[in-house]
C-alpha cells in the first residue's frame, strides 16, 4: 500500500445521523489523509453504509437528519446544495457497492457506462473516452479491454463486473473512493483480484480509500488505519497493526475473534 501524505483530504466532526427519531451514528470523528486506506468494521446494522452514504450525500432524504461537519478538501459537504452534488459525486468522490451487477445498467454496454460517466463531467469525444478507458484497463491489468467494452454486464462474471465497476468509479480520478463491502458477493479468487485492483489504484493515483468489509484479512492487508463501529459509535480507531495485535476494547476482540472464526469456517 501507498505511503500516506501529510495533506488531510477528509474530516468528519461530531457527525450524528438520525433516521426519523432513531439515532444511527453518534458523534463520529474521522480524518483521512491523501493516499490513506481506512478500513471500517462493525456488525450488521451498526451504521457503516450510513456513514459512507453521508459522505457522498446519498442518504435517504425523506427519513434522514444529519448534523455535524464533513470537510472534503476545502468543501463543507453538508452545505452543498443537491444541484451542485453532481460536480462532486463521481468526479471528486467515487463509490462502489457490494454487487456491481445490480448497479450497472443491464441494457447498456460497458462502453456506454464509461462514455456517459465521463461526458457528465467533461466535453470529450466518445473515441477519446474509449482510448482513456483502454489505457486505464491496461494499468489495472484488465485483459481484453475491447471485448469488455463491447459486453453487457450480464455477459461478464460477477468478479469481472466488480473490477469494471471499480475502473468506472476511478475513470474521473476522484481523490477519494468509498467501497461498501466490495468483495462480499464474490468468490475467493475474485475477492483477491478486486483487492489487488484497489491497492493498485491507491498506488497509481494516490487515491484515498474507505473500505467497509467483514473480512479482517482484507483490512489487514490493505488498510493503514481501522475504525471499529459499535451501534453508531466509533469505539476504537487506530493503526491497523495496533487494532489487530493489541485491541483495547473487549467488543473489538469479540469482533475480531468472530470474524477470524468465520473466515476459518
Ligand atoms: N433509509 C432508511 N430508513 C430508515 N432506517 C434505515 C434506512 N437505512 C438504514 N436504516 C437503518 O439504519 C441502521 C444502520 O444501517 P446501515 O445500512 O448503515 O448498517 P450497516 O452497518 O451498513 O449494516 P450491514 O453490515 O448489514 O450492511 C439499521 O438499523 C438500518 O435498519
Ligand atoms: Mg451496509
Automatic annotation (TrEMBL):
Keywords: ATP-binding, Cell membrane, Membrane, Nucleotide-binding, Transport. One of its GO terms (molecular function) is ATP binding. The keyword Magnesium does not apply. PANTHER family: DIPEPTIDE TRANSPORT ATP-BINDING PROTEIN DPPD, OLIGOPEPTIDE TRANSPORT ATP-BINDING PROTEIN APPD. Residues 10-256 form the ABC transporter domain. Belongs to the ABC transporter superfamily. It is found in: Cell membrane. InterPro entries: AAA+_ATPase, ABC_Ni/Peptide_Import, ABC_transporter-like_ATP-bd, ABC_transporter-like_CS, P-loop_NTPase. One of its GO terms (cellular component) is plasma membrane. This is ABC transporter ATP-binding protein. It holds the Pfam family ABC_tran. The keyword Ribonucleoprotein does not apply. It is a peripheral membrane protein.
